[in-house]
């Protein structure tokens, strides 16, 4: 009788989880049959999943590794988030596209507002409280406010997404942004999430690796990254992930998205480098999942591989998604950049960086 009750309970729990993941909008939507037919033509799609060309280990590849990770997360690290909320620099809405200069404004983590050649792009605009399908239970953002609230933003020409993880693609942010955005340019399969959230199909362009799109005078190229995707237990690697190459009349920018270190960086550098500025992931790492999130020293090497001039470290200073001290990513990048002669910008959240400028923010503000 006890075994029967346990079995019934497990069935009920599984059914409840399936219902929630199917009908709760934050989980997004799987591609339709017609959409899957298009996706399946990708050279990066094998046996119903997207893959990186080289073997890539996930964090849960062994029971021992999974247990040690769980134990460390339960134990916690009191230095994994700042002792006091971070206070971003204010971004005046009227200053956006005020000049024709290429300007980068970091919103924390990987969210970046990019102004180039009179065009405004928002890269991975995760502007929500927590990187979770249930924001009220997830780890809160380090700052209580944004450089500028979504309601105050002017029209955004395009949103570029690197993949569909919650710390990059946020349901609440997209719902608030969608009517301000002219186009959503995303990796294969990600458009299904956006359509469920009310973005019209006409405003979505899905890209495979190395696909190029001309938009508002810019050339946008989806490039490889070594990562994975998914928003639930049932959709691992059903959508593509990517980095982005953004080319204007005189400026080239590389946005790494999320990635472990791999040969794709050198390939990107050979095909499209040099870059005036790179936006490179440097945080939420651990040696146990280094294949999907670079260590900071690898971040600097990746910048060198793509032949970057100026680097801004991203994917830190907003959320705790690993066990390291919250300042470790930028401090390790700072040291590695100095050792390799890499020019580094370390802006506060909301502090603008101008590509090609002789002076860029470089103070260790986190200390």
UniProtKB/TrEMBL annotation:
This is Membrane protein. InterPro entries: Metallo-B-lactamas, NAPE-PLD, RibonucZ/Hydroxyglut_hydro. The chain crosses the membrane at residues 6-27. It comes from the Bacteria. It catalyses: 3',5'-cyclic UMP + H2O = UMP + H(+); 3',5'-cyclic CMP + H2O = CMP + H(+). GO terms for cellular component: cytoplasm. It comes from Paenibacillus graminis. GO terms for molecular function: N-acylphosphatidylethanolamine-specific phospholipase D activity; zinc ion binding.
């Amino acid at each position: 009788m006890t075994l029967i009750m346990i079995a019934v309970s497990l069935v009920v729990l599984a059914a409840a989880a399936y219902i929630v993941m199917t009908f709760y909008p934050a989980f997004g939507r799987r591609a339709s049959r017609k959409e899957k037919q298009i996706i399946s033509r990708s050279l990066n799609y094998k046996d119903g999943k997207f893959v990186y060309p080289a073997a890539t280990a996930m964090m849960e590849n062994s029971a021992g590794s999974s247990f040690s990770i769980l134990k460390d997360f339960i134990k916690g690290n009191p230095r994994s988030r700042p002792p006091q909320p971070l206070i971003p620099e204010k971004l005046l809405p009227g200053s956006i596209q005020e000049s024709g200069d290429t300007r980068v404004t970091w919103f924390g983590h990987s969210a970046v507002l990019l102004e180039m050649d009179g065009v405004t792009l928002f890269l991975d605009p995760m502007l929500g409280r927590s990187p979770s399908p249930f924001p009220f239970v997830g780890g809160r953002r380090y700052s209580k406010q944004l450089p500028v609230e979504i309601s105050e933003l002017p029209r955004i020409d395009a949103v570029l997404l690197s993949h569909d993880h919650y710390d990059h693609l946020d349901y609440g942010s997209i719902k608030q942004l969608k009517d301000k955005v002219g186009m959503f340019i995303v990796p294969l399969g990600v458009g299904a999430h956006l359509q469920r959230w009310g973005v019209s199909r006409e405003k979505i362009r899905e890209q495979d690796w190395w696909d190029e799109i001309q938009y508002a005078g810019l050339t946008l190229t989806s490039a490889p990254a070594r990562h994975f995707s998914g928003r639930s237990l049932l959709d691992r690697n059903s959508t593509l992930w990517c980095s982005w190459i953004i080319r204007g009349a005189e400026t080239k920018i590389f946005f790494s998205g999320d990635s472990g270190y791999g040969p794709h960086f050198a390939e990107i550098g050979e095909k499209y480098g040099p870059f005036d500025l790179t936006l490179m992931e440097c945080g939420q790492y651990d040696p146990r999942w280094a294949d999907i999130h670079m260590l900071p020293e690898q971040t600097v090497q990746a910048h060198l591989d793509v032949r970057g001039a100026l680097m801004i470290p991203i994917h830190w200073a907003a959320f705790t998604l690993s066990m390291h001290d919250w300042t470790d990513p930028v401090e390790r990048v700072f040291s590695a950049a100095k050792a390799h002669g890499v020019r580094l910008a370390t802006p506060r959240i909301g502090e603008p960086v101008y590509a090609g400028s002789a002076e860029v923010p470089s103070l260790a503000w986190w200390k």
